[in-house]
Amino acid sequence: MSRDTETDVTEVLSDEQRLTLLEKRATRDRFMLWGVSGVLLLVLLVWLTTGLMRLFSNDEALTPSSPEIQALQKQAAGFEEQLARIELQLAQQNTRIVTLSAAQSSVSASPSAPVASGERSDTLQQVARLMISQEQTFQGSLTALKTGMRDLAAMIPGSRSWLEYYNESLDKPLAESQTRVKQLQQWSTGKPVQSPTAP
Fold it and tell me: What is the pTM of this model?
């Protein structure tokens, strides 16, 4: 009997009333559809976010207290101390070179103290060998420091930028040390030393 009353009601309604009733139902259905899709979208976003967080949060690899990272940090600190010592030795040797070259020029300028050319070349070669070996030790320390930093950067995500900056800052002293070795080799053979060109 309710169907009969519905048909009677629909028959009694005018076209405009039916159209309004249909528009209300369509609007209500549209809101329901938007609401359900919004809830589904929210659930999907939450699910994706938690999945990504689980994927990228490896607690064991990211903890700064892991023994490997601590060991590498200690190793890096040791390399930095060693680098500081070598730089100090290098500065001392540079002052010795300046002193020796000044003494050499004063000895060569005064004819009162003749020095045998064999003694002079032996002394030059000994000093040059000593300084070359110290430069090579310095280069080895810089190379070991770069290797340690690269290993440390491989363990820490997002470290590419500081590693590139760190390598660039170590490349300059390494190149300068290699230039000094070449100059010392020239100096030990008695050839005139070419001064480095300024960048």
Answer: 0.40
